[in-house]
Here is the input.
Amino acid sequence: MKSEARGRAWRRHNRDRMICRAIGIVSREQPCGTPDEIRRSALLRADNLRDCTCSACGNPRRYWKSLTMAERRARSASRQNDTD
Ligand SMILES: [Zn+2]
Here is the structure.
């Protein structure tokens, strides 16, 4: 699946999807926030949901010089494809 073959509608769909996820996360973090406040915070966080960069939540490549979860997943998927 080539992501560059997807168009504007796909990007808008994914942007909306990430805004919905951010609304869920922000509303759990700010249970007393008004819908307007939650929506504003969610729009700010939608591109990058993780707001903490400590060594426990941050990029493991940066802190521990090890692979990120996505990289490990991609590597094990390509290994499985090699054996097939
Ligand atoms: Zn953290």
Observations:
- The chain is about 60% helix and 0% strand.
- Residues 8-29 form the longest helix (22 residues).
- Residues 1-51 form one domain.
